[in-house]
Amino acid sequence: MSSPPSVYLPNNFAPQPIGLIAGKGRYPILMAERILAAGLPLRVISFAGETDTDWVAQLPKAEHIQIKVGQLGKMLKSLQKLGCQYAVMAGQITPRRLFHGLHPDIKALKILNSLTVKNAETIFGAIASEIEAIDIQMLDARSFLDDELAHEGLMTPGELKAEMTYIEHGIKIAKGAADLDIGQGAVVRKGTVLAVEAYEGTDPMLQRAGSFKTDGLIFVKTVKRRQDYRFDVPVFGDRTLDVMHAAGIRTAALEAGNVLILDKATILAKAKKLKIELYGYSHM
């Protein structure tokens, strides 16, 4: 390979099998498409009841293993069985699975019992460490999707309508919430905090904010200052855009280089049509 297909790949990256640990939605599908387009061998671990069934059904049987959510031991053995040298996580697992529908094996129970604080960072961080302990290198979850990331400045046509003072206030609130492991988003209005994302996720937060039936709402999406990019990269997609529109939220500020806009060109065109401005801000 003449040059790495992504700036987020390690310097010593070699064209070896990549195990895609695939959750819900478009994110893992797009990741798989990009890995194959780069001419790299793809292997997939999917989750029953979570990963898109239509996509999974098209995967070669010898290159795909399906497991239940919580079967960590089986995941590790599957990555080895598929001959993976690398692994990358893409796509969410339904949050309620932590309470209902989890099928933890002995390996998973051992990890869960060892964690005093149980959130996305601690759980997925522990899983990533277990994968690396069997000599499979975890890749940055932004790998291969460089052009799908938010970029700095106004990404939609025209001039920015939201005031920078209020956007900066929203960034401050969202960053604070992220650093406290509460969530990765917030909605503000003219210096007032209307909603902060927590365990329920982005879309319910946007719906709550929209229930105030007021104008000037700004949605901010961010990452922690010490984000672990082996997992939990925030995503802005078609569904979130629809929820924003229904909630009457006309501005989204997304952290450049750290928030994925899945199918970016399509989303930007749709945002223009819906008269929603998407603004990329630099790291703070």
Keyphrases for this structure?
Cytidine Deaminase, domain 2; 9 helices; 284 residues; alpha/beta; 19% strand; Rossmann fold; five-stranded parallel beta sheet; six-stranded mixed beta sheet; 2 domains
Describe the structure.
By secondary structure, this protein is an alpha/beta fold. The protein has 2 domains: 18-138, Rossmann fold, CATH 3.40.50; 149-281, LpxI C-terminal catalytic domain (Cytidine Deaminase, domain 2, 3-Layer(aba) Sandwich). Helix content is 34%, strand content 19%. The protein has 9 helices and 13 strands. It has helices at 26-37, 53-57, 72-81, 106-114, 120-133, 164-179, 202-210, 238-247, 264-274, and strands at residues 18-22, 42-47, 64-67, 86-90, 137-138, 153-154, 185-189, 192-196, 217-221, 235-236, 251-255, 260-261, 277-281. Strands 6-13-11-9-7-8 form a 6-stranded mixed β-sheet, with helices on both faces. Strands 3-2-1-4-5 form a 5-stranded parallel β-sheet, with helices on both faces. The chain has a two-stranded parallel ribbon with strand order 10-12. Strand 1, helix 1 (26-37) and strand 2 (42-47) form a beta-alpha-beta unit. Helix 7 (202-210) runs parallel beside helix 8. The chain is globular and about 55 Å long. The relative contact order is 0.13.
Total helical segments? 9
The major β-sheet equals: 6 strands, mixed
Distance between the termini: 35 Å
- Under CATH, the topology of the largest domain can be stated as Cytidine Deaminase, domain 2
Estimate what percentage of residues fall within beta strands: 15-25%
Quickly give the CATH architecture of the largest domain: 3-Layer(aba) Sandwich
Mean pLDDT: 92
Low-confidence stretches: none
> Helicity, in percent?
25-40%
**How would you name the oligomeric state of the polypeptide chains in this document?**
single chain
Q: What's the CATH H-level superfamily name of the largest domain?
A: LpxI C-terminal catalytic domain
- Assign the CATH class of the largest domain: Alpha Beta
Count structural domains.
2
**Order of strands in the sheet with the most strands?**
6-13-11-9-7-8
Q: How would you classify the helix and strand content by structural class?
A: alpha/beta
Number of strands: 13
Using only CA atoms, what is the Rg? Answer: 19 Å
The succession of helices and strands, N to C, reads EHEHEHEHHEEHEEHEEHEEHE
